[in-house]
């Protein structure tokens, strides 16, 4: 159709979830026209939120019109979305990798940050005990979750995984196939057999290693700060 790019933006910004999803390819096709009004394209979105429509516009710019990105980012921020941390963690690498769809790197940053948030014991041993999760700062978990949501059309992140688990009445054995962590009853092999792109199944990322059992993931998905976002 020959709607104006302003009309396209209006529908992408304020449409229903289904309408927005149907406009995802059109946003990409019209990247050049959108870049000409880059400031206005993002003006109606909230950097403190997690609206994936803003994340998708930024990913389209990153891929097709990267020259407009610096003008959208203030020099002292970690990217377009705000990334508050209660413990001084810089989320710039995570936001940069998610923006560029470097999902494997973003995933490694996420698990390393979970260890850091859980404390020096977890960092030294190289993995988090489930019993350490309740003390993790909720602000930081929410920042990580918002970024994964915003840069995945709302398909990745802990709250997506928690929502899917909830819809399966808490049955992890059903969740594994749903999020692509098991194929034909076999664990998906890390890292090479995971799908490190937006075409991955919903809830595919971030990964939580199941080598030591499901209790760590269960504690993360049920952290009170995330439960409040579902
Ligand atoms: N790995 O299979 N995983 C590792 C996953 C399992 C294993 C890391 C996820 C099953 C070993 C991450 C799945 C299993 C190591 C993940 C998966 C297994 C390892 C990086 C699907 C064998 C290396 C490290 C559920 C049957 C040794 C980390 C070690 C690493 C993620 C084996 C992110 C989601 C049960 C031997 N696997 N992992 O822990 O100790 O962050 O790390 O889940």
Order of helices and strands: HHHHHHHHHHHHEEHH
Describe the oligomeric state of these chains in a short phrase: single chain
Find the structural class using helix and strand composition. mainly alpha
Strand order of the largest sheet: 1-2
How much of the sequence is in beta strands? Answer: under 5%
Segments where pLDDT lies below 50 for 5+ residues?
none
* Major beta sheet summary: 2 strands, antiparallel
Total count of helical runs of at least 4 residues: 14
- Give the N-terminus to C-terminus distance in angstroms: 36 Å
**Radius of gyration from the alpha-carbon trace, in angstroms:** 18 Å
Helix content: 40-55%
- The tally of beta strands, per DSSP, is 2
The small-molecule ligands in this entry are:
ligand UYC
Principal-axes geometry comes out as globular
Q: Round the mean pLDDT to the nearest integer and report it.
A: 96
Short description:
The protein is built from 14 helices and two strands; from the N terminus they run H-H-H-H-H-H-H-H-H-H-H-H-E-E-H-H. The chain is an all-alpha fold and 230 residues long.
Describe this protein's structure:
The protein is mainly alpha-helical and 230 residues long. The protein has 14 helices and two strands; from the N terminus they run H-H-H-H-H-H-H-H-H-H-H-H-E-E-H-H. It has helices at 5-14, 17-29, 31-36, 38-43, 52-64, 69-72, 92-99, 103-118, 120-125, 138-150, 158-167, 172-178, 215-221, 224-227, and strands at 182-183, 186-187. The protein has a two-stranded antiparallel ribbon. The longest helix has 16 residues, at 103-118. It is globular, with a radius of gyration of 18 Å. The two termini are 36 Å apart. The chain binds ligand UYC.
């Amino acid at each position: 159709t020959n709607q104006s790019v302003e009309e396209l933006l209006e529908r992408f910004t304020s449409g229903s979830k289904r309408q927005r999803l149907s406009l995802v390819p059109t946003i990409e096709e019209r990247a050049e026209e959108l870049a000409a009004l880059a400031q206005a394209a993002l003006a109606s979105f909230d950097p403190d939120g997690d609206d994936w429509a803003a994340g998708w516009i930024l990913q389209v710019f990153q891929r097709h019109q990267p020259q407009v990105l610096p003008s959208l980012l203030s020099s002292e921020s970690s990217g377009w979305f705000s990334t508050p941390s209660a413990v001084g963690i810089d989320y710039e690498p995570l936001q940069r990798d998610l923006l560029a769809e470097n999902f494997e790197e973003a995933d490694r940053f996420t698990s390393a940050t979970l260890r850091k948030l859980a404390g020096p014991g977890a960092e030294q041993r190289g993995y988090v005990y489930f019993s350490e999760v309740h003390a993790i700062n909720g602000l930081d978990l929410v920042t990580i979750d918002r970024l994964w949501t915003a840069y995945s059309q709302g398909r990745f992140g802990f709250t997506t995984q928690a929502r899917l688990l909830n819809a399966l009445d808490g049955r992890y054995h059903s969740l594994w196939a749903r999020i692509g962590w098991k194929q034909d009853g076999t664990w998906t092999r890390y890292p090479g057999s995971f799908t490190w792109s937006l075409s991955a199944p919903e809830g595919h990322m971030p990964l939580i290693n199941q080598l030591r059992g499901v209790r760590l993931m269960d504690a993360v998905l049920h952290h009170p700060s995330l439960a409040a976002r579902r």
